[in-house]
């Protein structure tokens, strides 16, 4: 388990470092996830090392959202004058997420003759 968490943390730190050094507007963990995805494609043996522990983390994913929820509640008072911008951002990102998900599912689903 320690090796798996070390690998996951290493990719997250690598992503954070790249985002910091290159001043990218993308969060470091997202870059780390993309790097991990590329590493998993390049080295399938890495998947066997981290799969069980990553699934265990996913089982308890709801606990990882507690600090984010507390942060949102704590910062709610500082964003009281920006509700319209926040609402527009939430709606825009939700619609964009739904559209991208639909396009990915459409591209990944088997065609009529493929079944």
TrEMBL record:
The keyword Nucleus does not apply. It holds the Pfam family LrgA. The chain crosses the membrane at residues 29-46, 58-77, 83-105. It comes from the Bacteria. It is found in: Cell membrane. The keyword Cell membrane applies. Signal peptide: none annotated. It is a multi-pass membrane protein. Keywords: Cell membrane, Membrane, Transmembrane, Transmembrane helix. This is CidA/LrgA family protein. It comes from Pseudoduganella albidiflava.
């Amino acid at each position: 388990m320690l090796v798996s968490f070390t690998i996951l943390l290493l990719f997250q730190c690598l992503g954070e470092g790249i985002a910091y050094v290159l001043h990218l507007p993308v969060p470091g963990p997202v870059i780390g996830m993309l790097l991990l995805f590329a590493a998993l494609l390049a080295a399938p043996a890495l998947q066997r090392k981290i799969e069980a522990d990553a699934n265990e983390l996913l089982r308890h994913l709801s606990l990882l959202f507690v600090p984010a929820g507390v942060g949102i509640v704590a910062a709610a008072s500082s964003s009281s004058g920006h509700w319209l911008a926040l609402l527009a951002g939430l709606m825009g990102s939700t619609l964009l997420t739904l559209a991208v998900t639909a396009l990915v599912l459409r591209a990944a689903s088997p065609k009529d003759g493929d079944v």
